[in-house]
Design brief:
The complex is a heterodimer.
Chain A (H helix, E strand, L loop, with lengths): L19 H21 L3 E2 L1 H4 L1 E7 L6 H9 L7 E5 L5 E7 L5 H15 L4 E8 L1 H29 L2 H24 L3 E2 L1 H31 L5 H33 L5 H20 L1 H8 L27
Chain B lengths: L5 H22 L2 H4 L10 E2 L1 H4 L1 E8 L1 H22 L5 E6 L2 E5 L6 H11 L4 E5 L4 E6 L1 H26 L5 E5 L3 E7 L5 H8 L4 E5 L6 H5 L7 E4 L13 E4 L4 E2 L3 E9 L2 E8 L1 H13 L5 E5 L2 E4 L11 E4 L5 H13 L6 E9 L1 H30 L1 H23 L3 E2 L1 H30 L4 H33 L2 H36 L7
Parallel strand pairs in B: 1-19
Antiparallel strand pairs in B: 2-8, 2-18, 3-4, 4-6, 5-6, 7-8, 9-12, 9-15, 10-11, 13-14, 14-17, 15-16
Helix pairs in contact in B: 1-12, 4-5, 4-6, 11-12, 11-13, 12-13, 12-15, 13-14, 13-15, 14-15
Classes of the chains: A alpha+beta, B alpha+beta.
Chain lengths: 321, 523
C-alpha cells in the first residue's frame, strides 16, 4: 500500500497576515497599473465587440504576407491587419476593421476580400459582426460579469455573514480588474471567450475564497479566545495544502489548453491561467485581511452542515488554541 | 456515514451505468451509431467543431409597416376618387398617412371613408383645418411585425430546405431576429444569397406611350414608373424600362416554378393558380403585341413581347440566366417572397478543415490535461489518489453521457470547459482528503477520521461549487453559440463532479475500508 508524497508539510506556520502589508502594496500597485492601462490604452476589442471582419485563410503555398497586405490595403477597407498563425506558414489571420455604414457594408467588405484573395485560398473561418450586434454583445458581457459578481457575493452574504460577503465582493472585483488589466496592458484580443474566462475566474476565485472562509467560520466557533489575526493564519495554514493542490491540478489542466488547445482558445487560456494565479492570491491576501478590517463577530450562526459537530468528541485540533 | 444503504449503492451504480450508456455512442464509429435510436446518439458537435455557418438575421419590419402605409395611401386615393371627394397633400409622413380635405362639405364623408378602411387596426385623427392623420394602433403594428417575422422564418426555412442543407436550425430570437445554423456547409455564400433576397415577383405592362428619355430626366407619366433591368446594352449599361405601376399578376399566385431549357438557353418555367391564370390570361389577351415586364425585386428580368393570349396559366421566364441562376430563381419563386427584407447582422463560418483541427487540438488538450491531473493526484495521495482518479474518470464518463443524453452541443470552448472541470473536479476530493489527514493527525480513529472528513468538507464543497454554478448559469443566459457550450459543460461538470467526489468516491473508499481493514490510513 503506498501513500502519497507530502507536497506540503502537514503543519506549517507561515505568517500570512504578518506579511499582508507587502502583499497589499503589491496588489494595490497591480490594480493601479491595470486601471491606468484600462483608462489610457483601453481594451483591444476583437470583432465580437468592435464589429468588423475576421478571416482565417490557408494558402496553397507559403503565404506572402507583405504582398497580401499590399493588395488588401489597396481595397480601401481601412487598416487591414494580417498575421501569420500556426507553423506551416500557410495560415493567415486577416482582420478588417468595422466598415463605416450599416450591416450591408460589412458583408460587402467580406466579399471584396474574398474576391481579392481569389480561388486558391481555403477560407477556414470567417466572422462578420455588424455594429448593432457588437454593441449588444458589449452590453450583455458587462451585464453578465457584473451580475455574476453580485450574485456570488450575495450568496456568500447569505451563507456566511456580511463581512465575508464584502470580502468576497472586493476579492472578485480585484481579480476581474487584474484580469482586464492584463488584457489591456498586453493588448490581448478581448472577445466573447474572454468574458467566459472572466466569469470562470470569478467563479474559481470565489471557490477558493469560500474554502478559506469556511475554515475561518469553523475556527471562529472552535477557538473562542484566539485573536482574529492568529485565527486567520491558523486557517490559512490548515488549508494551505489543499490550496496548492487544487490550484496545481487546475493550472496543469489549463496549461494543457494553453499549449495544445489550438489558436482559437489561446486568448481564453491565457486569461484562465492568469486568473487561477491571481484568484489564489486574492483569496489569501485580499479576502482574508479584509476580515480584519470589517470586524467579524465571534458568535457565528450555526451552520446547518456542521451541526453534528457538537455531539462529537472534539479532539481540539492540532493548532494551538 | 460509512454505511451505504443497498438502494443508495444501486442508485449510484445506476447513474454511473446510465452515464456509460449515454457516453458510449460518442466513442463508437459513425457506421455503428447510425443504426442506434435517436435518444442514443453521439454528442452533437457545435458549428465550430463540425464546420458550418451561423447567421443572425434581422427582419426589417419597418419596411412592412411602410408598405402597409403606402397601401393605405392607394386605398384612400381610389376611394376618394370614387366618391368625388376633393383632397390635397395625400402621402406618408412621420409614420402616418396624411391627407387634407379642404372643402368642409366633403369632410363627413371623408371621415366615414377613412374610418372604414381598417377600423380594427387604425385610428383617424382629424384637425379643424381638414387635415386627417391615419395611424396604425400600437397593437396592430405589433401584430404586423410578429406576422412578418413568423412568415419570414417560414420562407427562410423553405428556401434552406430547398438547398438540401442537412439538419439546419432556424429559430426566432427576440422580437425580430432569426438565427439560422447551417452545419457542414462549406460555402455559405449561395445560401446567404438565397436567404437574403426578397424575391418579390410582379408582372407589369410596359408603358409604350412613355418616352424613355423624358423618364430618365424625371418626367415619368402618372401611373407609371422607371425600373432598371438586367438587360444590358452593348456598352454594358443597364437598359431601363418605363412600366405601368398596376400589377397584372403577382408572384404569390405561383404554384410552381422549375428550371428548364428553351433553345438551349436556361429558363424558368412557372405555373399560376386558377386566379393567377385568369389574371394572366386577361392581361395577355388584352395586350397582344405589347411587352410584359417581369419584375423581380424592383428590377426587370426581361420584358418579352406578347405574341398571343396565354390562357393555360403557365409560361416561361427568359433572361440571360446561367444554369445556376435559373435554378436559384425557380427555387426562390417556389419558396415565396419574404414579407420584408432581411439584414445579416452577424455571420460566423467555420470550414470543415479548421473544425477537424479544433477537434484534434481539443482532444489532445483533454487527454493531456486528464493525464496531468491523474499523475498529480496519484503522487499527492497514493492509493487515495487512485480512488480519486477512478471517480474523476467516472465523472468524465457521466459528464459526456449527460451532454449526449440532454442533447447539449459540444463546442470548442465546451471542450475547454471539460478540461477545466477535470482540474477543478478533484478539488472536492482534495478537500475531503486534506480533512481526513487533519483528523488523523488530531488523533481520531481511521473510521472516525474518514466519517468526519467527508462530513466536515461538505459545506466548503457545497458553497464553493454553488458559486461557480451561478457564474456558469449567467454565462449560459447571456452567452451565445460556442460560449454557451462552455457554460453548459462547466455547469454540468460541477454537478457531476460533486456527485462523483461525494458519492462515487466515498463508495469506493468505504468498500475498500471494509475489505482491507487497514490499521493505518495510507493518505
Amino acid at each position: 500500500m503506498f501513500r502519497g508524497i507530502r507536497l506540503v508539510p502537514d503543519t506549517t506556520t507561515i505568517d500570512f497576515i504578518g506579511k499582508r502589508m507587502i502583499a497589499m502594496a503589491l496588489s494595490g500597485l497591480l490594480i493601479l497599473a491595470c486601471l491606468v492601462s484600462l483608462v489610457t490604452q483601453g481594451l483591444n476589442f476583437g470583432i465580437d465587440f468592435a464589429g468588423g471582419l475576421l478571416i482565417e485563410a490557408r494558402t496553397e503555398q507559403q503565404a506572402d504576407l507583405s504582398d497580401m497586405r499590399q493588395r488588401l490595403n489597396a481595397l480601401g477597407l481601412g487598416d487591414v491587419a494580417i498575421t501569420g498563425i500556426g507553423d506551416t506558414g500557410r495560415d493567415v489571420m486577416i482582420r478588417v476593421p468595422k466598415q463605416p455604414g450599416e450591416e450591408e457594408a460589412q458583408m460587402a467588405a467580406l466579399n471584396a476580400v474574398k474576391a481579392e484573395l481569389g480561388t486558391g485560398v481555403e477560407f477556414r473561418r470567417t466572422e462578420v459582426v455588424g455594429p448593432k450586434v457588437g454593441e449588444e454583445l458589449v452590453r450583455d458581457g458587462a451585464l453578465a460579469v457584473g451580475l455574476a459578481i453580485l450574485v456570488i457575493s450575495a450568496y456568500i452574504w447569505i451563507r456566511f455573514e456580511w463581512q465575508f460577503g464584502v470580502g468576497a465582493l472586493v476579492a472578485t472585483i480585484h481579480d476581474v480588474i487584474a484580469t482586464l488589466g492584463i488584457y489591456s496592458l498586453f493588448q490581448i484580443d478581448f472577445d466573447l471567450t474572454t468574458v467566459a474566462a472572466l466569469l470562470t475566474i470569478a467563479g474559481y476565485s470565489i471557490n477558493d475564497t469560500v474554502v478559506n472562509y469556511d475554515r475561518v467560520r469553523e475556527n471562529l466557533r472552535r477557538y473562542k479566545t484566539t485573536t482574529l489575526a492568529d485565527l486567520i493564519n491558523i486557517s490559512l495554514n490548515q488549508v494551505l495544502s489543499r490550496t496548492i493542490l487544487t490550484s496545481g491540478t487546475t493550472l496543469v489542466a489549463v496549461l494543457a489548453i494553453l499549449f495544445f488547445g489550438g489558436p482559437v482558445l489561446r486568448g481564453f487560456a491565457i486569461g484562465l491561467t492568469w486568473g487561477i494565479v491571481i484568484g489564489t492570491f486574492s483569496s489569501i491576501y485580499v479576502a482574508m485581511p479584509l476580515l480584519l478590517y470589517t470586524g467579524v463577530r465571534r458568535e457565528s450562526e450555526e451552520d446547518p452542515f456542521t451541526e453534528g459537530e457538537q455531539q462529537q468528541p472534539d479532539a481540539g485540533g492540532k493548532a494551538k488554541g | 456515514m460509512l454505511y451505504f444503504a443497498k438502494w443508495k449503492i444501486g442508485l449510484i451504480l445506476a447513474v454511473v451505468l446510465a452515464g456509460i450508456v449515454f457516453a458510449l455512442p460518442t466513442a463508437l464509429p459513425r457506421s455503428v451509431t447510425a443504426d442506434l435510436p435517436e435518444w442514443l446518439q453521439p454528442v452533437t458537435l457545435g458549428l465550430d467543431l463540425q464546420g458550418g455557418s451561423y447567421l443572425l438575421l434581422e427582419v426589417e419590419t419597418d419596411a412592412v409597416i411602410e408598405e402597409q402605409l403606402t397601401n393605405t395611401v392607394e386605398t384612400i386615393r381610389s376611394s376618394f376618387r370614387e366618391n368625388r371627394i376633393r383632397y390635397r397633400d395625400l402621402g406618408v409622413r412621420a409614420g402616418a398617412v396624411e391627407v387634407r380635405v379642404p372643402e368642409a362639405e366633403d369632410r363627413a364623408k371623408a371621415d366615414e371613408l377613412l374610418r372604414g378602411i381598417d377600423p380594427e387596426g387604425q385610428t383617424v385623427d382629424a384637425a379643424d383645418d381638414g387635415l386627417y392623420r391615419v395611424t396604425f394602433t400600437e397593437q396592430a403594428l405589433q401584430q404586423r411585425r410578429i406576422n412578418a417575422v413568423t412568415q419570414s422564418i417560414e420562407i427562410v426555412r423553405r428556401r434552406v430546405d430547398e438547398t438540401g442543407t442537412r439538419e439546419p436550425t432556424i429559430q426566432r430570437q427576440g422580437d425580430q431576429r432569426i438565427i439560422v445554423e447551417l452545419p457542414g456547409l462549406d460555402d455559405p455564400e449561395r445560401v446567404k444569397e438565397l436567404i437574403g433576397r426578397t424575391a418579390k415577383l410582379t408582372l407589369h405592362m410596359v408603358d409604350h406611350e412613355a418616352d424613355i428619355q423624358d423618364a430618365l430626366r424625371g418626367r415619368v407619366p402618372p401611373g407609371s414608373t422607371l425600373v432598371q433591368s438586367n438587360e444590358q446594352t452593348a456598352g454594358g449599361q443597364s437598359i431601363p424600362y418605363v412600366v405601368k405601376r398596376r400589377v397584372e399578376v403577382s408572384g404569390d399566385r405561383l404554384t410552381d416554378a422549375q428550371p428548364s431549357f428553351q433553345n438551349g438557353q436556361p429558363v424558368v418555367s412557372f405555373r399560376f393558380d386558377s386566379a393567377g391564370a385568369r389574371q394572366f390570361g386577361n392581361a395577355t389577351t388584352e395586350n397582344v403585341g405589347r411587352q410584359l415586364a417581369i419584375v423581380l425585386d424592383d428590377r426587370v428580368i426581361s420584358a418579352p413581347r406578347i405574341n398571343e393570349p396565354i390562357i393555360g396559366g403557365s409560361g416561361i421566364i427568359t433572361g440571360n440566366f446561367t444554369v445556376q441562376e435559373a435554378q436559384d430563381l425557380a427555387l426562390l419563386l417556389r419558396a415565396g417572397a419574404l414579407p420584408a427584407p432581411l439584414t445579416v447582422l452577424e455571420e460566423r463560418t467555420v470550414g470543415p478543415g479548421l473544425g477537424a483541427d479544433s477537434i484534434e487540438a481539443g482532444a489532445i488538450a483533454s487527454v493531456l490535461g486528464l493525464v496531468l491531473v491523474v499523475v498529480f493526484m496519484g503522487v499527492a495521495y497514493g492509493l487515495f489518489g487512485l480512488f480519486a482518479n477512478i471517480s474523476l474518470l467516472t465523472n468524465l464518463v457521466i459528464l459526456l453521457g449527460a451532454l449526449s443524453g440532454l442533447g447539449a452541443t459540444l463546442t470548442l470552448p465546451g471542450i475547454a470547459g471539460i478540461v477545466l472541470t477535470l482540474g477543478m473536479a478533484v478539488d472536492a476530493n482534495v478537500l475531503i482528503y486534506e480533512r481526513i489527514r487533519e483528523e488523523i493527525a488530531a488523533g481520531r480513529t481511521i473510521q472516525n477520521a474518514i466519517e468526519v472528513g467527508y462530513r466536515q468538507a461538505f459545506s466548503a464543497i457545497f458553497d464553493s461549487n454553488i458559486t461557480t454554478l451561478a457564474a456558469a448559469a449567467l454565462l449560459f443566459s447571456f452567452g451565445t453559440g460556442p460560449v454557451k457550450g462552455f457554460a453548459v459543460t462547466l455547469g454540468l461538470g460541477i454537478l457531476t463532479s460533486m456527485f462523483t467526489a461525494i458519492m462515487v468516491n466515498r463508495l469506493i473508499v468505504v468498500t475498500w475500508l471494509r475489505r482491507a481493514r487497514p490499521k493505518t490510513l495510507p493518505i
